[in-house]
Amino acid sequence: QVQLVESGGGLVQAGGSLRLSCAASERTFSSYTMGWFRQAPGKEREFVAAITWAVFRTYYADSVKGRFTISRDNAKNTVYLQMNSLKPEDTAVYYCNADVMVRATINPGNYWGQGTQVTVSS
To answer: Could you tell me if 36 and 13 are in contact, meaning their C-beta atoms sit under 8 angstroms apart?
Structure first.
């Protein structure tokens, strides 16, 4: 099975930046489309960003376009989410996901990390 471990969350002021990391234990990590989802208290989990293995094609939710950047380092089995210009509404638990399905809509694969808390103060 694939083990995913997120890190890099924390408390930041509005307008600040954070970079999340997701380390995968699976040696075939490079073949997966990887992504990030987030869930705020009382809300449904939502898609944030995804990146393919083939040509590093990226996908973003409209709410984060221009502010967040997803990237990956296959040699390190790690995917990153650089978050800039953070807003209070970005506050959520952020989850790494492996084998994201990119079709008409974007849906998560079966492998989840434990989540990392991101809190943005006003």
So the answer is: no
